[in-house]
């Protein structure tokens, strides 16, 4: 199989997921009307579909650790952030889930999810068991939302102050970078299932010969994805908080001048 053939045939058409996506988009439009920034919510659904039905998912399903890592980044950091940006300014969390809005809970959720799912036995199980993969996906989206709530909550009063948010994001970036460095320089086999992929689709020759993807190289790329692109997401959020920080004094000074 060639790369072009794989990119055409490597899609996983999941009817239940597609129906749920359409329902989520329609529900968001009806519930929030013009108050929600629908394009952000639509982008979030698009990212989830990219992670779960595109050839990326096929590769992450027991073939490439690097694809598995890219999938985690999309589900934990990108999709939840876009979803929160798509909520209307009047939205707030119900009392039942209020505990998720505490900064320490959010930080542990975001950082802990990435470390937890890279315990070798759990990493391997999620790559081959549909049930475990479903649990993993739901947990990444949920814990990612708890993490981003601290800085992207629709209401300003629910967000961390800019300086606290910068510390929150920087320490999370450092913790995930540490895991990325460990994975990059560790001996091959951090996620054992990717050591000897079961070639169900006949794409292993393409990966090995055309792409030159050996297990050590695959793991190094996966570690670098967590180390560099993942931290770029945090850095972008930190820059946004700096902009917010410098914008705060202006209204305050205006109020004092009255």
Contiguous helical run count: 13
Shape: globular
What is the percentage of strand-forming residues? under 5%
Low-confidence stretches: 251-258
Distance between the termini: 71 Å
State mean pLDDT (0 to 100 scale): 87
Computed structural class? mainly alpha
- Helix coverage percent of residues? over 70%
What string, H for helix and E for strand, traces the elements in order? HHHHHHHHHHHHH
Descriptive account of the structure:
With 258 residues, this protein is mainly alpha-helical. Helices cover 72% and strands 0% of the residues. It has helices at residues 3-9, 15-32, 38-53, 55-60, 65-85, 103-116, 120-128, 130-152, 162-185, 204-210, 215-227, 229-247, 249-257. Helix 5 (65-85) runs parallel beside helix 11, helix 6 packs antiparallel against helix 8 (130-152) and helix 6 (103-116) runs parallel beside helix 9 (162-185). It starts with a helix and ends with a helix.
Concise summary:
The protein has helices at residues 3-9, 15-32, 38-53, 55-60, 65-85, 103-116, 120-128, 130-152, 162-185, 204-210, 215-227, 229-247, 249-257. With 258 residues, it is mainly alpha-helical.
List the helices and strands and how they pair.
Blueprint lengths: L2 H7 L5 H18 L5 H16 L1 H6 L4 H21 L17 H14 L3 H9 L1 H23 L9 H24 L18 H7 L4 H13 L1 H19 L1 H9 L1
Considering the chains and any ligands shown, give keywords for the structure.
0% strand; single chain; 258 residues
């Amino acid at each position: 199989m060639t790369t072009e053939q794989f990119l055409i045939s490597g899609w996983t058409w999941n009817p239940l997921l597609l129906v749920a996506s359409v329902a989520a988009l329609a529900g968001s439009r009806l519930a929030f009307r013009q108050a929600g920034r629908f394009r952000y919510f639509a982008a979030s659904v698009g990212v989830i579909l990219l992670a779960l039905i595109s050839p990326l998912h096929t590769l992450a399903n027991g073939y490439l650790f690097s694809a598995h890592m890219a999938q985690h980044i999309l589900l934990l950091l990108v999709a939840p952030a876009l979803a929160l940006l798509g909520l209307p300014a009047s939205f707030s969390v119900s009392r039942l889930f209020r505990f998720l809005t505490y900064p320490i809970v959010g930080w542990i959720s975001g950082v802990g999810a990435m470390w937890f799912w890279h315990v070798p036995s759990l990493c391997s199980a999620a790559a081959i068991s549909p049930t475990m993969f479903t649990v993993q996906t739901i947990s990444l989206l949920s814990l990612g939302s708890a993490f981003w709530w601290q800085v992207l909550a629709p209401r300003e009063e629910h967000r961390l102050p800019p300086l606290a948010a910068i510390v929150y994001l920087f320490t999370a970036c450092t913790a995930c970078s540490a895991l990325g460095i460990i994975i990059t320089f560790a001996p091959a086999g951090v996620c054992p299932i990717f050591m000897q992929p079961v070639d169900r689709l006949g794409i292993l020759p393409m990966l090995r010969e055309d792409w030159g993807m050996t297990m050590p190289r695959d793991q190094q790329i996966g570690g670098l994805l967590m180390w560099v692109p993942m931290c770029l997401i945090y850095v972008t959020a930190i820059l946004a908080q700096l902009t917010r920080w410098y914008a705060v004094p202006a209204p305050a000074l205006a109020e004092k001048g009255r």
